[in-house]
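Sync notes, pocket subgroup
Present: LS, DG
LS reminded everyone that the earlier model was apo-only. Rerun requested with flavin-adenine dinucleotide included. Inputs:
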Amino acid sequence: MLLLTRLPTGPILIAGNDDQKQRYVRPSAAGEVRAAFGLSEPQAGSDVMGMRTRAVRDGDDWLLSGTKCWMSGVDQADWYCVFAKTGDPASREHDSISVFIVERGWPGVSVGSLDRKMGVKGVDTGELLLDEVRVPPENVLGEIGGFRAAMLGLNAMRPVVAARGIGLAEGALMYATEYIKQRPAFGRTIADFQGIQWKLAEMATEIEAARLLTYRAAWLADKGRYTKEWVPFLSMAKYYATELAVRASGECLQLLGAAGYMKDHPMELFYRDARQLTIVEGTTQVQLGLISRGVLDHDCWWD
Ligand SMILES: Cc1cc2nc3c(=O)[nH]c(=O)nc-3n(C[C@H](O)[C@H](O)[C@H](O)COP(=O)(O)OP(=O)(O)OC[C@H]3O[C@@H](n4cnc5c(N)ncnc54)[C@H](O)[C@@H]3O)c2cc1C
């Protein structure tokens, strides 16, 4: 819930003007309207610069055409934060992309197919279709070519996604622990075996390590430190906590044996939901690329 509200409003909080904040962020914060975030396209996920959605100037307005996909909350949203190329469609320069606030009710805006997902079924994801949607100048976010500023919103989101990973790992470990303390085997319980206890210890340690990385990332984001030099520290939290969620949900499912595989217990749900976390908001590989860039550039350095 927190993530879906913050994703489309984040760029406005960072790059938007007061009028845009009043018209879109305030009612979203009050729970009166919902919004969604349109960056990904069928041919352009990690490779954001490969997007094809275009915005062409028409007088003072812009006409937007293209298809966004895998958009969380697409069918429930009242407005969308949409990224589109205003410059040369083949350009790979960041300033060829601008950000627009698009309302659901405007002519040319429609929802396409909804996805059939493996997990995270509490919210729909799907396509947003834009067919010559007329966007007035007051709905351009920041400057034309202001992609970089809007993307800072994504950096600031890393601790929120990381927190989802931690909560998921904690839930899985607590559930599995209570189960194995009750489950008899070989005249003892599963929890009595040292090999199992070490697994609990490793997961507990990793959860606490992820928490500390995430608290630091949240503190940085709160201080407005989400520009390039802070990126590796924000990405570390997202990378580590979401990979932990996948590992811990898998290990905990195993601890329950067959019961873990059945829908009578929440483990299979945790396992399916965790898989999404390492893909959204910059995949694990994208985070690793950002962290390594930070080391290469000495943003993350220890001298
Ligand atoms: C449930 C769900 C909800 C989503 N919600 C939204 C949303 O609300 N709004 C939105 O805009 N998008 C959303 N997405 C899309 C998500 O942001 C993309 O899936 C993500 O950015 C990855 O893009 P992709 O799927 O096209 O993978 P690709 O970019 O095709 O990558 C495929 C694989 O290759 C790896 N890879 C890519 N490039 C490199 C590289 N240079 N080096 C090494 N490995 C690489 C990736 O890490 C990945 O493992 C959602 C996705 C899911 C699953």
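DG: Residues 36-40, 45-47, 70-72, 117, 120, 125, 276, 279-280, 283, 285-286 surround flavin-adenine dinucleotide (CB under 6 Å).
LS: The chain has a mean pLDDT of 96.
Action: DG to write up.
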